[in-house]
Amino acid sequence: MDKMFSNADDENIVIGNDSNFWRYSSKNGFDLTRQGDHSLRLQTTTQPIKIDPTRTALVIIDMQNFFLHPVVRSHNTGLAACERLLQFAIPAARKAGIQIIWLNWGLTEEDVDQAPPSLKRVFARGLITESNNSGTSSSKPIYTGIGSEMGDVTLSNGEQWMAADY
Q1: How large is the C-alpha radius of gyration of the chain?
Q2: What is the pTM of this model?
Q3: CA atoms within 13 A on the CB side of 129
């Protein structure tokens, strides 16, 4: 499909092909309905988007303690996003009839062992060194990233932390 112009004030572009396409209008934003029978207009921080709730899903990825629980990792941005999802996005999606897909990522011991250093580094909160207590200046690095043993974690209410969704 080619770019189309309806008038000088409103540029219209078709993105895709004859059977699978989106429309963009400089006045109305993106239309992702593909000529669907139902539509819902969402105002975003940049452009409005029109979707068909019957052909749309809200995909939520990795709501895990390792990334979000304040006892394990201080990640204020992730916690704020989680709160907004729970308070606004999920209830609005359910009300509009939008399917919600929860996707959790799990790793086996082999996955962790075979992971490339670049992936391990992304998940490393940092490297901690442990003194060898022998009076020498050498120290032993302790890796504290993905796959590391976390030990027992006690929450502020006294409960033991379990590896479950936050």
Answers
A1: 24
A2: 0.59
A3: 7
Contact 56, 99 (CB under 8 A): yes
C-alpha dist (Å) from residue 5 to 25, 30, 49, 152: 9, 15, 19, 63
**In sequence order, what are the residues at sequence separation of 6 or more whose Cβ sits closer than 8 angstroms to the Cβ of residue 126?**
144
pLDDT (tens digit per residue) in 10-50: 789 999 998 889 999 999 999 999 877 889 999 888 999 99
**Cα–Cα distance for residue pair 122/115, rounded to 1 Å:** 11
Question: Is 16:22 a contact under the CB 8 Å cutoff?
Answer: yes
Residue 125, pLDDT score: 54
Rounded to the nearest angstrom, the gap between the alpha carbon of residue 152 and the centroid of all alpha carbons in its chain is 27
